[in-house]
Amino acid sequence: MTVSLFARAISLLSKREYSEHELRKKLAPYSTDDPALLEEVIQRLKEHHWQSDKRFINDYITNKSTRWGTRKILYELEKHQIDDETLSELKETLKETEFERAYEVWKKKFKDTLPETPQEWAKQARFLASRGFSQDVIIKILKP
After folding, report:
1. Residue 21 banded pLDDT, cuts 50, 70, 90
2. What is this protein's function (predicted)?
3. For position 3, what pLDDT does the model report?
4. Contacting residues for 52 by C-beta, under 8 A, at least 6 apart
5. Using an 8 Å Cβ cutoff, are 8 and 30 in contact?
6. DSSP type of residue 49
7. What residues does each domain of the chain span?
8. CA 31 to mean position of chain CA atoms
């Protein structure tokens, strides 16, 4: 069973990066008879650097930062049970580029067309807010 669970974990990690929490959830159904076995497999993966939360975070941010704001990225990483200290460091890093990212998302969707009516302004603001961009950034972008 150890080889089977370990092989399953390696197979998952060969396709993409997983957070420790996500990997535990994926492997849990296969280790019902011995929960200690799952811990052993996770430890072995970490010792050999086959699973790394830091690598997962970097990969996740690279994939999502072109479309999402800081708030949404951090919210999604919280679901993966990334520790608060790491999240606060990431928040500062992501905040530095949030305006540029939000502007690119807005420009792609609305083609540099500033809102002319309150309804258009609300529509564009809702769009950016749904992507997780902060209110301050939204106001700067939509300011005439």
Report:
1. very high
2. Modulates RecA activity.
3. 61
4. 17, 46
5. yes
6. T
7. 5-51, 54-142
8. 27
